[in-house]
Amino acid sequence: MAEPLALILREQFHAPEQQRETATLGMWIFISTEIMLFGGLFLAFSVYRMYYPQAFIAGSADMNIALGATNTAVLICSSFTMALGVHSAEVGGRKLLNLFLALTMILGAVFLGIKFTEYYLHYLDHRVPGPGFLFPSADPPKAEMFFLLYFIMTGLHALHMFVGEGILFSMILRNRAGSFSAEYHTPVVLAGLYWHFVDVIWVFLFAIFYIEGLHLHKW
Amino acid sequence: MIPALLLVAPASRVAVEYDWLFWSLVVVCGGVAVGIAAFVVYSAIHFHRRSENELPPQIKGSLKLEVTWSVVPLIIFLGMFAWGASLYFDIERPPANATEVYIVARQWMWKAQYLDGRREIDELHVPVGRPVKLIMTSQDVIHSFFVPAFRVKQDVLPDRYTTVWFQPSKPGKYHLFCAEYCGAKHSGMIGYIYAMEPREYALWLSQGAAEGSLASTGEKMFHQFGCANCHHFDGQGPCPDLKGLYLRPVLLTTGQTVVADESYIRESIVDPAAKIVAGFTNYMPVFKNVLTEDQLVELLAYIKAIGPAPGTQQPSSAGSVPATYGGQPGISGSGPAGISTDQSRAH
Amino acid sequence: MTPVAEAVTVERNYLNQGEGILSWLFTLDHKRIAILYLVSVTMFFFLGGLFALLMRLELLTPRAWLFNPGDYNKMFSMHGIIMVWFFLIPSIPTTLGNFFIPMMIGAKDLAFPKLNLLSWYIFMFGGAVTVFALVRGGVDTGWTFYTPLSTTYLNTYVTATATGVFIAGFSSILTGLNFIATIHRMRAPGMTWFRLPMFIWTHYATSLVLVLATPVLAVTLLMMGVERIFHVGIFDPALGGDPVLFQHMFWFYSHPAVYIMVLPGMAVISEIIPTFSRKPLFGYDFVAYASMAIAVIGFLVWGHHMFVAGLSIYSAMAFSFLSYLVAVPSAIKVFNWSATLYKGSISWDTPMLYAIGFLGLFTIGGMTGLFLAALGIDVHVTDTYFVIAHFHYIMVGGTVMAFLGGIHYFWPKITGRLYPEGLARLSALIVFVGFNLTFFPQFVLGYLGMPRRYAAYPTEFQMLNVLSTAGASILGVGYIFPLCYLLWSWKYGKKAGPNPWRGTGLEWTTASPPPRDNFEVSPIVEGPPYDFGRMREELHLG
Question: What ipTM score was computed for the predicted complex, to two decimals?
Fold first, then answer.
């Protein structure tokens, strides 16, 4: 094991644990940046939610709660499989790692599939902001603001999911090439951190977009 | 430069107060800056390196000095803060007896509408020695109303009203600038303020009014657009009674209470669904893009003018239902830190 | 210096190890990437400066004589956008920071060299998009992109420009991330936090702001772009949005961005002053804490840009109070720098001249900031030339002076050559005089009430404007001089040797120019920074 270790230690570092800690710190800094990125959108959402409470609740009641809840469950499961994947990497189970990475990818794909189905349904319902927007309430322009923020925020989240899928795929490729071992698997840990972060963001999105108008939902 | 200095000579009550603070800061800050500069230059010359291998005493620091130059500036800063804030209060809060003039800004001109119906563009005539309050809105982008001689400035925003006030102290002709970049001809959006002796001002006012006062034009519109069909003045109509509405607290269906200021009344006309008075259902048509800003100002002037003066008891339409907009004292306050303006929309 | 190191100077260093343009474009060496950045930001500086010069020419006369007002609006917009995002923000961190952070902490490179190169490419891509927008017809929003003017009313290349800025923002974020990870994890053995040169502390504070503030700008520009492209409401009141929210979000980034620009300037000054006074930085701990305090409190003061925008009186009071609070650490820094000079052994080499200039100009910039933080005072002078003068004293009198001082200070290390000292001192003097002549009259103009962003103005403002334009032409000459003699000295300058200024940092212990891995032997740190006392022992031995 000593040989691959020497190979993967980049020249600016003097020890493997320094390299690992640095990479992990880097990922945490990146995540804090991402929090500020989504934070700006959450701020805009809160402000307009405060200006237009009724329209926003009406918009929320219009969401497809079944698909949203399913998607939340799917993502939480994917976080679980990701955690199992990281654990397998730590104990050096290369086949298990492959399996769990693949499972996570599949769950991620299911999420994206459902999300885009939802987008399509919104499109059929004329809920896409713009000239064709329709909403059966007294105040369509304000509901339009709700849907606009919905599309921007979930769209940005979906973009992060796509990136996550790409990262997972590269992890699978590197694992198949034998790059990871019980001693060296930092990239898998970092991919896990990123994946969990994206999942957590979704939980917040689910709360503000789906749950808030649940009491008015037409079942 | 000399004529320019004369031009900016303080010409309002606040401006005199302003210059006191400004020049005090110049003296304090200038004194400290000169002191620091003198110390630096003195050190640079007096301690100039004498030989290539000179090694000065290695002083690391001094807690006493550090504490001194943290605490002393802080105290001075707090003084500046307090003085600046008190001046700001004077600038921002118009006295109750101020004469009102409505301003509608747009690319690239200022339009003033007086209560008696007189209108002018890029000019504003005001009396000396009396407070004048401007209620301003913009038809397009953000502008800013700036009169250097009065030391006042206030951004003028679309879709809401902001106010500014001043009390001219000297008759004269003063610059009015747009201070917020507003597009191609921003630098052409300038006009003049004419401060006149009260007698001349009265004369000037009497010369121009064309079609009756703002409120009377507003009253005509109130009937023309069918407002009067539902908004009865006996408290019995299907819509809220607008008598004495201005500056009263209003209880909404959401349980919130807002003060019926200019921005609230404006919003209730252009976007009636936004805030619905408790005990009523909204079926008022939307007047957004139907009325111009000028017409809205006229309606507003009328609504402010009708009914008993604020404070008079408002009869409540139904016993148990929360009163429409009476009897909810002591509400409002500012919105969430920072976001809200002094308008009602953030509530 | 050991003879071994001398030999290395002649043979192999980061400049001659690898040849051809590709060895530069694919380099992972932080020093070479710093040079790439240096070339890029210098180009952007002169581009932004050209716009400034054209503006000053236009303002010679009260009436618009050179451009029509629309074109003048493009001039100041492009000047602001290029100077803020493509010069000031990257200027010191990506050049001197990139080069010297690893060297000062005794590391071989930054933590993530590939990310470092990537951030240069992202920066250049963002710059290219912006320049594209400029060539196609420019933009006239002002650098502040205020809505609804920017989203609904203007017909210029707003989206393209905002996209360029958006892209460049990610370069900032990656640079900040790289610096934080490097400073945390790459320090040489013995290099504890309180043995770090102040340059490192201040860059650490800068990086925190870069990482936490820049994404907010990205998301604000994103929403602005969505509103502009799809004409759906977020900030335009006609579409149900709130334009003041845009201002809040914009300044939540752009006020901390001021500290992104000036903190690195403070970093450079905190190195120059001890070296040329041969004394440790006075009150080291306090200066370090002050840097962190500026970074933290700097996030809480954005509302002071909006005192007349329609804030409630009470939130305005809170922002005013916090603005005074953030002035305290800046004051502490100025006092400590000045105290460092006292009883020192002051040399008048060019970097020190720039540092002394910085002290004076930054003090004036900071003092006038106290005027603007006072609520009542701000009402009259905000959005006038007073504000323009104030932030140019900070940005040009502060950051650009520090940048020039830093370039001169580190030039021997970067290139291994000395620049012509007499000429350098002369141009430092020209810059100082030209700067003051340009910007001091603008304080007066602002007090007299001349609003900013005016292509034409009432005649009584002309004399001060002519003075300012005269100063600008002197300032321009002062900037072109260093460009010429520094380039000349790269080839023909005298050899510098590893430590021409007898500095104490690790960067001076290695050859000039440094080898690829910075140090022949990984250094071990045993003492505090700015330990000039060691000179005595060296003299003894020598």
Answer: 0.91
